Amino acid sequence: MKNNFMNKLNAFSVLYAEDEEGIRNNIEEILRHLFKEVSTAKNASDAYKKYIQNKPDLIITDIKMGNETGIDLIKKIRETDSKTRVIVTSAHTDLDYLLEATQLHLIKYIVKPITNDKLMEALESFIKSFDDNKIYNLNENWVFNSSKSVVSNGTEDFILTKKEAIFLKLLITKNRVISYEELENAICDDDSILTSNAMRLFVKNLRKKLPDNFLKNMQGIGYYYNTKTSESN
């Protein structure tokens, strides 16, 4: 379970905003061991610029940063973006802060000091905020994010076509051999036909984006995935 959790985190990017340099450096070091990409900011203005540049999957921000606040940052982001996940950190437990933060659709509110347990709990909430059927572990290093149609091995992302994503999700969720007919029905509309050559080319291209020996063929029947190289959620 822990390996699955860490594997899933490694498919995402994070932006961390904190004005206290010591805290920022310490948490950044932890995050770099967990996430695919990490960017940091020392104030809300800097954080918004980094958000625009990097479009992170998760933002972790302190509430009080000099004359600026993380609340203002999130409000500005929420004007056009309701999907990016946000975790707030603060030394304050003031009810007004909590109520205002709650209205901004946060994943978690961490009261400082930020301990490893508090951070991990918040990051688990981040992973759980995605539907269980959207993130799949292909093996100990590879993840399929079906919401983004991306397969990642932690260092490289492979963008799937719409048809490739449909087939891969079908393959994993059914957890059995998918017949040639099922494959054709899943990825073709009523007016199109998938010839044998086209099917082989489709699978050949998909294999290039998956772990070695993951996608297997049962001659004359269909395709299945190699359970020896994969892990269940």
Describe the protein.
By secondary structure, the chain is α/β, with parallel strands linked by helices. Helices cover 40% and strands 22% of the residues. The chain contains nine helices and 14 strands. It has helices spanning 2-9, 21-32, 44-54, 70-78, 95-102, 116-128, 162-174, 180-187, 196-207; strands at residues 13-17, 37-41, 58-62, 64-65, 68-69, 85-90, 108-111, 135-137, 143-145, 150-152, 157-159, 178-179, 215-218, 222-225. Strands 2-1-3-6-7 form a five-stranded parallel β-sheet, sandwiched between helices. It has a four-stranded antiparallel β-sheet with strand order 8-9-10-11, covered by helices on one side. Strand 6 (85-90), helix 5 (95-102) and strand 7 (108-111) form a beta-alpha-beta unit. The radius of gyration is 21 Å and the shape is elongated. The mean pLDDT is 86.
Layout of helices and strands, plus pairs?
Layout: H1 2-9, E1 13-17, H2 21-32, E2 37-41, H3 44-54, E3 58-62, E4 64-65, E5 68-69, H4 70-78, E6 85-90, H5 95-102, E7 108-111, H6 116-128, E8 135-137, E9 143-145, E10 150-152, E11 157-159, H7 162-174, E12 178-179, H8 180-187, H9 196-207, E13 215-218, E14 222-225
Parallel strand pairs: 1-2, 1-3, 3-6, 6-7
Antiparallel strand pairs: 4-5, 8-9, 9-10, 10-11, 12-14, 13-14
Helix pairs in contact: 3-4
Summarize the structure.
40% of the residues lie in helices and 22% in strands.
